[in-house]
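I have been asked to look over a protein record a colleague put together. This is what I was given:
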Amino acid sequence: PSPAPPSRMSEEATEGIAAMSVSDSDLSSNPIVVKLDDLGIPHRTYSHVPCVTAEELVTNVPLDPATTNETHTKNLFLKDKKHGLFLLTVKPDAEVNTKAVGKALGLEGKVNLRLATEELLNETLGCAKGCVGPLAVMNDTEKKVTLVLDERLLSSDVTKIHSHPLRNDASTVLTPADLRAFLDKVGVEPTVLPFPRQGEEKEEEGAANAAKWDGKAPANRPHADKPAKKGGGGGQPQQKKDNKDRKTAKKGETLLALRWKKSENFAMWYSDVIVLSEMISYYDISGCYILRPWSYKIWEYIQDWFNVKIKELDVENAYFPLFVSQDRLEKEKDHVEGFAPEVAWVTKSGDGTLAKPIAVRPTSETIMYPAFSDWIKSHRDLPLKLNQWSNVVRWEFKDPTPFLRSREFLWQEGHTAHASYDDANVMVRQALELYRGVYEDLLAVPVIPGYKTEKEKFAGGYQTTTVEAYIPMSGRAIQGATSHNLGQNFGKMFDIKYQDEKGESQIAWQTSWGLTTRTIGVMIMVHGDDSGLVLPPAIAPLQAVIVPIVSKKCTMEQLGPYCDKILASLKAAGLRAKFDDREMYNPGWKYNHWEQKGVPVRIEVGPRDMEGEQARVVVRHSGEKADYKLDVLADTVKGMMDGIQAAMFAKAKATRDEHVTKVTKWEEFVPELEKNNLVLTPWCGGEHKDWEEWVKDKSREESLAARGEEGEDERAATSVAAKTLCIPFDQPELPEGTKCFASGLEAKCWV
């Protein structure tokens, strides 16, 4: 939750400031202030003496000594003839080396970042020299400017950021979270880089300087395996300089290491991991991301497994259009209300305006079911079981997070029609069992299957089932996948009727069920550690990697054939394996690189191993090491896969189970939630939406009070308020006379 809007500057903080050139009340019409108000983002804008530079701000507008974790900003509007416009927003004490910035941004070829003219500043960002701040990017309607933020502005040490609102006699105050929210609302995805303090930067040029910037999320950086360009330019530094870096680095350090610990800053750790492990690249449209081959391969393995399973259930794959007409989308009232805030609409074609807007698929019930109506005429046409693999667009306005909450994502959606409720319900449970299998058998993530309450069920559906996962570091549950019994509601809306064996007209019973790329994000959060990804063997793109330990005495030419022999044996055993024969990187670099990517097993091969016809095997998730002879190596590693998979699941399940508690009294409820626990409580029934709202409001109130906070940001993706996850299928015994922990009514189940 974000803190309450900041109060006025203290009298002590304003001592010595000259008379204001404009009153605070006159700032209400400022375009930045108006935009923040329209977006509902908490802020404070105050007036002060005109300050053109950051040095003047620090001197003439001192911040409250009691809140030294607040900061002004220094802003530089730069232009490069080839690469365009850049707005750098940094802390006032930051050292800005434009050559290093160019390298960190991965700008290729000749880079010459210089201050842009005031005319260009006014034309692009709508302000004069000395008046610019990060909020000015809202005026960049053509998205010509790349916003670069100082990593230290977004650190946990900073609580408030002060910046000019298009004028130099005022400053607007935002929390780092609210600054990110503003940028997201205006469609700007900033690049975050670490700027050193003045005096810390010792080298003006060279690979050592570039390496200091390398590995930061969410910027897209030159990748470690990208070959150097002969003329310098972008990409990987030249080999000579790269070798110099290795000498100054700690032994085994890749210079691409994670900068955040999972336990210290979970959100930034997650951002670091998904970028540095080459799972994700950021895109210029907020909330949309590029799935790189390493992550897409995981999705393909999920697809492969799932396709085999659904075909055993006589489900066939098909594909339906991406677009849906407004009439069709709005045909089912409850359904469209559930998705309305997130629907993206196409309103123009070229320069022309469409006669009627067309929605981009938020889900496919209203796209598929008119076809179901055409195809289903007789009981002989049932059951109809279809699945499609597709993308979905939901214009999410809460904090977007790769894999977990994005505006476009990949999924499968199954849709079936049946002659009876019972047949449909069997399909619902079969689909949910497949989802349990994806999480537990493939991803080694334990889940809790159960029913959603009436309040939480799928919009327009009859009943929703779910599998819920637990994220230990955040102490929160996350919905893994859902399977819905739609009843006959959509059948009535779309006239999906058939003649039964008696010749009478009947309405079909339907189901829908879906699984998304969220699965990958959940897996990362559950298993990842401070070294990077930890992948279960079942879905790892590579299950084993061979790293040769070469030296002047034992070259790659000598060691390579032996490694090739090991690789051939691994592949013959059915393992996904690779021999990393790149000669520009030393063994320590490779160890860290493949650890970061989460490969389950690393096989180290040195001259002694070659002489003894053996190799050393290192297990990623446990760190265990052992030497094995070549004749048993492949079978041994193959046999390890099931053990690693089982051990990862057991560890995750034990952690989850430690955080599941039972509570029967309200006064024990919020304290248990504050311990990052999932709480199992006696409940008066899934139909009681009123009591769910009461629990949500009351728990929010008590949680905020316990934390000493006044309120929370309604736009936040997560809330301190409690909500029901599911009514578990596996119900503990409920003694007769047990009361609901919230309402005091007779309890009907555990929730």
Observations:
- Residues 1-25, 201-255 have pLDDT under 50 and may be disordered.
- The longest helix spans residues 630-658.
